[in-house]
Amino acid sequence: MKDTETRTGEIRPPVAFRPEPGPGPVRSLRTLVLALVGTVALYALAVAIYLLSSVGAVGAGVLALAGGGVILPLALLLLRRRLWAPLASLERGLQQVADGDLTAQVRIERNDELGRVGAHFNEMSRILRGRAEEQGRFAAAGELLGGVAHEVNNPLMAIAAHAELRLADAELPEEQRTEMQSILRQAQRAAKLLRGLLRFVRAGETRTTRVNLNDVARSALDLVSYRFRVDEITMGGTLDPNLPAIEGDANRLEQVLVNLLSNALDALRAVPPPRHLIVDSYVEGGRVCVSVTDNGPGVAPEIADRLFRPFATTKGRRGTGLGLYISRQLVREAQGELDLVRRDHGVRGSRFVLALPPAPAAAVLPSGELPAGAAATAAATPRKSTLAGIRVLLVDDEELIRRPMCRFLTKRGAEVSEACDGIQALERITAGFDPHVILADLRMPRMDGAELYARLQAEHGPMPSRVLFLSGDITQLAGRGLAEVPRDRVLVKPVELMELEQRIRDFVGERV
After folding, report:
1. How far apart are CA 512 and CA 466, in angstroms?
2. In the 3-class helix/strand/coil scheme, how is 422-448 assigned residue by residue?
3. Where exactly are the structural domains of the chain?
4. Of 16, 195, 272, 499, which one has the greatest count of Cβ atoms within 10 A?
């Protein structure tokens, strides 16, 4: 869908990478091969004449044989220069790329078939080099975002926690309650967006699970939603609340939908308002489907068949032409299909459909999203001491996070001891505090959560099984030596206090 836009909004076909034509006319190796075959045939004829001729014709046979003896070596020399040398150069270039040198280029001396193959090789190595540089920047951005996420999630959690504590006060005036609900909703919105960005840039190993495509669509829309208002785009569509689950990697499917949505948004910029983007989910033909439809310029029929081919780009040296190709491959890995729907003549826009088979014994997965204000309403509901008798060791270097969490858990009946880092947590345990649950932040000065976990494994036998981690970026567990820790033992910041209470209660119940 990333098509070149003319001033009238017309879409030009994508141009697959093409080498620049070399100087001079196009020469064909077929001519060379035919000439060589002719030379060999003439030489064979001369030999035959010499062997079969009468004595009177011996002179002519010798002359033909001598002429062939001169022409054939020249032909072999020409063959070496036109065939063997370019092939050897191409082989060396391929070996360089295989060894990781993406700067490899082959020398192109002629504009024949091998010359054009060499030009294609040079262009492909350039594209791969650009792609590698882009991936390097993307990885660096992911690392940077991981650190920023931790620093942003901490104040977000502090804001949300204080808002939840205020909302739990039954005597809070209505005006202040409304303000606290608004603060809590905005903090949750910012946290959700940040979490989505982290998930997108840190998509690592494939994790196949049961997935609700409605949740995937919502997450993808959140990541591009900032463009709706800026580009005056109206969002519409219907997500089937009874959509069956599918089996796949939610992060990869989210990347596919983000690519489709980004392409649609780019296409919509080529047309004047009103601009409409429609996302639907439904079941059709036994497949679970999500469609992305726009009223942009659409895709020209003559290029629709090659829209998903690799290296087809209209961005010149700025583009890679791999977006739709990679998206289709990711969907096919999940046993699904990604297609462009042919639209009736005169109907503007384009429509892409992602179709996947339902999971075995397909069940409807809850979306996991509360209606607007539901969390705030739940926080305002008086609750009994559901954590009575449970001892919690809370380990976090941010006092603005520890204090509201400690107050909340204490109100729920828990006995809470605080520590500002892993060293202080070990001191609390050594002093005799025997927690049922250790809530430890992953990133802390002096001794972080991963180091604390390792020390507990080495010095306190049963304690590691009592640890729940707090983190703004769960994708870094493996890099911190925590690859074996189940994901359900990691609470992603900013965690809502009501969710924290439920997780602690369930965690202690499972251990008992």
Report:
1. 11
2. HHHHHHHHHCCCCCCEEEEECCCCCCC
3. 4-131, 138-356, 383-511
4. 195
Three-point CA angle 134, 135, 136, nearest 5° = 90
Q: Of 197, 212, 188, 201, which is closest to residue 358 (Cα–Cα)?
A: 212
Is a pLDDT exceeding 70 seen at residue 367? no
- Hey, is 142 helix, strand or coil? helix
Say if residues 166 and 186 touch (Cβ distance below 8 Å): no
Q: What is the mean pLDDT of residues 402-420?
A: 91
Q: What is the pLDDT of residues 293-304, one digit of tens each?
A: 999 888 877 777
Query: Hey, what amino acid is at 487?
Result: R
Cα–Cα distance measured from residue 427 to residue 419, given in angstroms and rounded to the nearest whole number: 9
- Name which residue leads in pLDDT, 383 or 490: 490
Give the integer Cα–Cα distance in Å for 450 and 485.
Answer: 11
Indicate the burial class of 450 (C-beta count within 10 angstroms; 0-12, 13-18, 19 or more): buried
Domain 383-511 homologous superfamily, CATH? Response regulator (3.40.50.2300)
Classify strands 415-419 and 350-356 as parallel, antiparallel or unpaired.
Answer: unpaired
Q: Are 444 and 395 in contact (CB under 8 A)?
A: yes
- Mean of pLDDT over the chain: 76
Is the sign of the CA dihedral 478, 484, 487, 493 positive or negative? negative
In this predicted structure, the answer to whether residue 380 has a pLDDT above a threshold of 50 is: no
Predicted confidence (pLDDT) per residue in 62-73, tens digit: 655 566 566 667
Does the pLDDT at position 44 exceed 80? Answer: no
State residue 381's pLDDT score: 47
| Superfamily for domain range 138-356 | Histidine kinase-like ATPase, C-terminal domain (3.30.565.10)
Lowest mean pLDDT among 29-38, 173-182, 196-205, 229-238: 196-205
